[in-house]
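Journal club prep — side note

Before the paper discussion, L.F. wants everyone to see what a predicted structure for a comparable chain looks like in token form. Sequence:
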Amino acid sequence: MTSAATTNIGHQGMLSAARYLAASAVDLITQPDLLEQIRAEFDDRTKDLTWATMIPEGTQQPLVEPPASFLQKTGQSWPPQGIDWPVSQIISREPLGTTGPGLPPVT
């Protein structure tokens, strides 16, 4: 990935992907009926699914302390209000391989 990102073909591929994503966003903004159809299909395909997080209840989000120069320039203090610091380690108690519900392919 690293070597491909620095090549002309890798850069052109990234630009093409960005153009397709931007064009898709324009289509959804200018065609609200299409967006409604997409939402209806999503609701229909996911109506029987139950979503669950793998993060244990009460776990604090992982944080990285910004450099002191950044805090000084922005007038912020560390840690932010309501955050325990340092953050306790997150240990997963879920078995591997539970990446979410399987959806049938759209043909």
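L.F.'s comment for the group: The two ends are 30 Å apart (CA to CA). Keep this in mind when we get to the figures.
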